[in-house]
Design a protein that fits this description.
Largest sheet of chain C: 6 strands, mixed
Order of helices and strands of chain C: HEEHEHEEHEEHEHEHHEEEHEE
Strand content of chain B: under 5%
Order of helices and strands of chain B: HHHHHHHHHHHHHHHHHH
Bound molecules: iron/sulfur cluster
CATH class of the largest domain in chain C: Alpha Beta
Shape of chain C: globular
Chains: A alpha+beta (301), B mainly alpha (459), C alpha+beta (307)
Shape of chain B: globular
Distance between the termini of chain C: 38 Å
Number of strands of chain C: 14
Largest sheet of chain B: none
CATH topology of chain B: Formate dehydrogenase/DMSO reductase fold
Strand order of the largest sheet of chain C: 12-11-10-3-14-13
Number of strands of chain B: 0
CATH class of chain B: Mainly Alpha
Number of helices of chain B: 18
Structural class of chain B: mainly alpha
Number of domains of chain C: 2
Oligomer: heterotrimer
Number of domains of chain B: 1
Number of helices of chain C: 9
Helix content of chain B: over 70%
Strand content of chain C: 15-25%
CATH architecture of the largest domain in chain C: 2-Layer Sandwich
């Protein structure tokens, strides 16, 4: 914590010095706001829910992540407003983030209701006062369907009165899973569900490289919805182009490794070295011969 | 002994005739006198002072290197742009100078030139000590000298550094052999002297087996011939490969197909300059006036002129052609050399290191020992700075502008540690030569004797 | 609270977590089954968790915290790279206003010596009557890398995923690669990096994270393969508020800056992408989009530029 603050201060000072910010470099001690905790709820493949918490504080008017903050996460409130089930105690990382899964021990509380409140609590530390944040979400799920050729349909439902009912007006993004993000399937950035809780998008990214068999992974997701949190579902479809990585990478080349030098180079180098060192060895042999002759001469005389 | 020299050619006879008309009277010299003239001598007062100075400079260099080991290369003024500095230019300088061993001994011998015999050992010891310090200075330049062994564990054949390591090692061994084998007959003479010097044991160890039999002479002659042939391509490769350290990159000023011959011609020039200086010094302080004559200087002078013109020719190629085109990446680089930051040094090196010596040596009087000595010094010093000008200005003119770095990264002037280490290495090389001359005859005694007998025989 | 007491491993672990849960779900089958992701090896140890529906499911510990470690990668694996990938970057010059957030993030995450920058932003102006623009420059991860060609000891090497890395445990500090790189990308640790704490110094070096930087060896942009393994983006990409950097896998034909994802081939075609100094034959993996229709006037960046 301390180090992080120091780092931040140093960073800020640096920025000040380098004229990055409009602030005057008069402030000796950086002004530190209260600790801010935010919780987000994620559901993956309609199976695994988890929480992500972020800790930050305002330093000189800018939010900076707070690493090393210890946060207690509770599930739902009791009558006194206190959390009743401890999900986990997490410590934020350098980027001020931490995640927690819902442990099996909370099965009862989880099943008891369709709406849940997550509570994040921090104790008082020498840098910050205690804080308390809540997030309420309703259980929901998202499904993805591709029965129709090159059309993707996603359905959003919430769990109400013991059954799954369609929700209208939820913004859903659909894309192809790619490194670090999703490539949208068509022109639209996102789609909004109709009264059946459905969105339909045309798959326009033809000829995308897939895996060995030409499979690609479709993703439908809801991001940071106020009522439902973030949900995400994936589906594999054979709409891509077969891709085989070329395995001729480790060929012999000038930029190759120690064991991949080009043959012509190996041949040239070794023949030169052998030729020259052969000569040197022969010369040493000649010296030894001179030496031997000298010894014989000595014996004779 | 005479019959060990099987052929005599006209040239030799002619040169013998020149000697006779020259300023020395070699005919009057007896064997005993030659031997006693050429035997290594104890240092005089001057010699001691000289040694002392060299040792002190070396110690300062060692201390500077100790600091560098402790704090890292940060003690140098090399930084990301000028990532190579005077260590590397010093290395190139050493490699260049070491080439002279092959020139004087091998090339001249193979072309049947015999007047250079008295100079062979001077050239060879310069070669050996220069190549040794080239190897040392390259280790000094490394950021992680303790990982030197990685070169053997993980050496990549594709890297010019590996080629350089290989050829330098090879050249070192060949040079040692070329120094050692002709030394054998002299060992016998050294061992035969009445007074037992401190080095008696060393002589015994190195050459007690030399009895001077006919067969031994034949084998050693054969070995020397093989060596003379072998050393030429190896010598060419050490400097060509050294030039490739630069020419294999894209940098303006280095990206040249001309670099190999350019480096080699420069190397021959500086090497013969160094030999000229050494000739003068040994002649003067070892009283070798009868062995290193005006004639030698005259001939050396002509060689230096020829090599100087050759190097000048390559310089014109190196600088004029790019300057004619003024490609964008080259522009800043060439400007800095011709009129900018490096212009004084550049023109000083061109004028003082090439043009002026060439002009002086064109005159017969210019080829007398003292002017030759001065010219030799100018050539050597000019060559040292020329190497600096090959390495540094290029690095300070990268393709992308120098940016996002502390201001000190944009210029380069060596720190005192760098100077101390570079000077220390130069002093070290001189020290090796000096000590060698203390222990062994700097002019080959046996060969001088043979030549002497030849001449008498020819009369 | 004091993270000085937390070892770096735990620290990384914490950071890794969120990425891993995501990485864990990149599968064909259910995301939490063993082998769901080629890069994460199951530990065999299971934890019981709740599903959305309230059922208890067992998940392999390797995919979860608090030990959601990617298996330690050996040096020889680091040298081979990730099979089937070919990482590329696209830098959109029209978006850059020299904020240098990328540089700060990069320097911080790689503990780059405070005098050095792996990522540099150049004010470029080619000709007398041409318009200036800001050009962020990372290592180009050349496909014919001149730096790799000249390294005597394999300390810098090219991997099958296109990334050129440095093994600081092997580098002898000859600096030949610095002379060979036409982009002047490489920097040298002339002294022990002031940013690396004593404690991190002792940590083993990893070619993929490039930490800890070591005295007497070279350093350069590593394209953050450690992040890519976790399906995350390099630090510069994430840090840029203008989304100047796009990172991706050429074999997936897509690049992303986190917020926007483009089909790589379309992007290059539409915006006339080019490579820097490709005439040298280095075949860079970094592509530039010309500074047309700029988001910011060039002068905006001058405030920050200190040369
Ligand atoms: S940009 Fe430079 S350091 Fe990077 S791969 Fe190319 S040559 Fe090597
Ligand atoms: S400095 Fe290191 S990485 Fe660069 S060429 Fe030398 S050994 Fe290889």
């Amino acid at each position: 914590m301390k180090r992080n603050i120091i780092n931040n201060c140093a960073g800020v000072l640096f920025l000040l010095l380098s004229g990055l910010t409009g602030f005057r470099a008069t402030a000796k001690e950086s002004e530190k706001g209260p600790l801010k905790i935010s919780i987000s709820y994620f559901s993956l493949d309609n199976r695994l829910p988890y929480l992500a918490v972020t800790a930050k504080c305002k330093i000189d008017g800018k939010f900076q992540p707070v690493g090393g903050a210890s946060i207690k996460l509770y599930l739902d409130k009791d009558s006194t407003g206190k959390g009743i089930g401890l999900i986990a105690t997490v410590v934020t990382g350098e980027k001020g983030k931490a995640t927690a899964d819902i442990p099996a021990s909370l099965e009862k509380i989880w099943k008891a209701s369709t709406n849940h409140t997550f509570i994040a609590v921090t104790d008082k530390t020498k840098d910050f006062d205690e804080t308390n944040t809540e997030l309420s979400v309703a259980k929901a799920r998202i499904t993805i369907d591709t029965a129709d050729d090159k059309n993707v349909v996603a359905t959003f439902t919430e769990f109400k009165d013991n059954q799954w009912v369609a929700v209208k007006g939820v913004e859903i993004k659909m894309g192809i899973k790619r490194l670090g993000g999703e490539l949208q399937i068509g022109e639209e950035q996102s789609y909004t569900t109709d009264s059946l809780g459905k969105v339909k998008g045309e798959f326009k990214k033809l000829g995308m490289p897939g895996d060995k068999t030409g499979n690609i992974i479709l993703v439908a997701k809801v991001e940071d919805n106020d009522a439902y949190g973030s949900l995400r579902i994936e589906k594999t479809v054979p709409w891509g182009v077969k891709f085989t990585a070329n395995d001729d990478f480790f060929t012999r080349a000038l930029w190759g490794s120690q064991f991949h030098s080009p043959f012509w180079l190996v041949f040239m180098a070794y023949s030169i070295v052998i030729g020259v060192w052969g000569t040197i060895i022969y010369l040493i042999f000649l010296i030894l011969k001179i030496k031997q002759l000298g010894k014989e001469e000595e014996k004779l005389s | 002994m005479e019959n060990s020299i099987s052929t005599k050619n006209d040239k030799q006879a002619a040169s013998a005739a020149t000697f006779a008309n020259g300023r020395r009277k070699p005919d009057a010299l007896t064997d005993e006198q030659i031997i006693s003239d050429l035997l290594p001598r104890k240092f005089g007062k001057l010699g001691m002072i000289w040694m002392g100075i060299l040792v002190v400079i070396c110690m300062v260099g060692v201390f500077a290197y100790f600091r560098q080991l402790k704090y890292g290369l940060v003690v140098t003024n090399m930084r990301d742009y000028a990532s190579w500095g005077i260590y590397i230019s010093n290395f190139v300088f050493f490699v260049a100078i070491s080439l002279v061993g092959s020139l004087i001994t091998a090339v001249l011998r193979l072309t049947g030139v015999h007047w250079s015999t008295p100079l062979t050992r001077i050239a060879e010891i310069i070669a050996v000590s220069a190549i040794t310090f080239a190897a040392i200075i390259i280790i000094v330049d490394m950021g992680r000298p303790e990982r030197f062994y990685n070169l053997f564990l993980f050496g990549r054949l594709q890297s010019p550094i590996i080629w350089d390591v290989t050829v330098i090692t090879t050249y070192f061994f060949i040079s040692i052999l070329l120094l050692y084998i002709p030394l054998l007959p002299d060992m016998k003479i050294l061992l035969a002297t009445k007074e037992k010097t401190a080095f008696y044991k060393l002589y015994r160890f190195m050459g007690s087996f030399w009895k001077g039999t006919h067969l031994q002479f034949r084998i050693s002659k054969k070995a020397i011939n093989i060596l003379c042939i072998a050393i030429v391509p190896v010598a060419f490769s050490i400097h060509t490969v050294t030039s490739w350290l630069f020419a294999t990159t894209y940098r303006p000023g280095w990206d040249s197909t001309n670099f190999g011959p350019y480096f080699i011609s420069g190397a021959f020039l500086v090497g013969s300059g160094a030999v000229t200086v050494a000739m003068y010094v040994f002649r003067k302080y070892y009283n070798l006036k009868n062995y290193i004559t005006y004639d030698h200087f005259d001939r050396m002078g002509k060689i230096v002129v020829m090599l100087g013109l050759l190097y000048l020719y390559f310089n014109v190629n190196e600088y004029l052609i790019p300057a004619f085109k003024m490609k964008k990446p080259e522009e800043g680089f060439l400007d800095s050399l011709f009129v900018g930051e490096f212009a004084p040094l550049f023109w000083a090196a061109i004028l003082g290191g090439m043009i002026i010596p060439i002009i002086v040596l064109l005159f017969k009087k210019g080829r007398h020992p003292f002017p030759m000595f001065i010219c030799g010094i100018m050539i050597v010093v000019g060559a040292w700075f020329k190497r600096y000008l090959i390495v540094t200005p290029t690095l300070l003119h990268p393709f992308l502008p120098m940016h996002n770095v502390p201001a000190s990264y944009k210029h380069y002037f060596p720190s005192w540690e760098e100077w101390a280490i570079a000077m220390g290495s130069l002093a070290g090389a001189l020290l090796v030569v000096t000590i060698f001359a203390r222990i062994f005859p700097i002019i080959p005694i046996q060969e001088t004797l043979i030549e002497q007998h030849e001449k008498e025989h020819n009369k | 609270m004091d993270i000085n007491n937390t070892s770096r491993k735990e620290f990384l672990a914490a950071m890794v977590t969120s990425g891993l849960v995501l990485a864990g779900c990149s599968s064909k089958k259910t995301p939490f089954e063993a082998g769901a992701d080629e890069l994460v090896k199951p530990s065999g140890e299971k934890v019981k968790l709740l599903s959305v529906d309230g059922e208890v499911i067992e998940v392999d510990k390797a995919f979860l915290k608090p030990v959601p470690q990617l298996p330690a990668i050996t040096n020889s694996e680091e040298r081979k790279g990730i099979p089937g990938k070919k990482f590329v970057m696209v830098i959109d010059l029209s978006r850059c206003k020299n904020l240098r957030k990328c540089q700060q993030a990069c320097n911080h995450m790689h503990q780059v010596h405070s005098d050095l920058n792996w990522l540099k932003v150049y004010p470029m102006n080619e000709g007398e009557h041409t318009a200036p623009y800001w050009q962020p420059t990372t290592c180009m991860h050349c496909d014919e890398p001149p730096c790799v060609k000249v390294c005597p000891v394999d300390a810098t090497f090219k991997r099958q995923d296109g990334i050129v890395l440095i093994d600081s445990d092997r580098c002898i500090g000859c600096r030949f690669c610095m002379a060979a790189c036409p982009y002047s990308i490489r920097v040298f640790n002339w002294e022990k990096p002031d940013t690396v704490s004593e404690e991190l110094c002792g940590q083993p070096y990893s070619c993929e994270t490039s930490v800890p930087q070591k005295k007497g060896t070279v350093g350069k942009c590593d394209f953050c393969p450690d992040m890519a393994r976790k399906n995350e983006l390099p630090h510069c990409v994430v840090a840029c508020p203008n989304g100047t950097f796009f990172y991706g896998d050429l074999n997936e034909d897509s690049v992303t800056n986190g917020a926007e994802t483009f089909r790589f081939s379309d992007l290059i075609k539409d915006k006339a992408g080019y490579q820097l100094m490709d005439d040298l034959g280095t075949k860079p993996s970094v592509y530039y989009l010309p500074p047309a229709a700029r988001n910011f006037p060039f002068e905006k960046g001058m405030e920050i530029d200190k040369g």
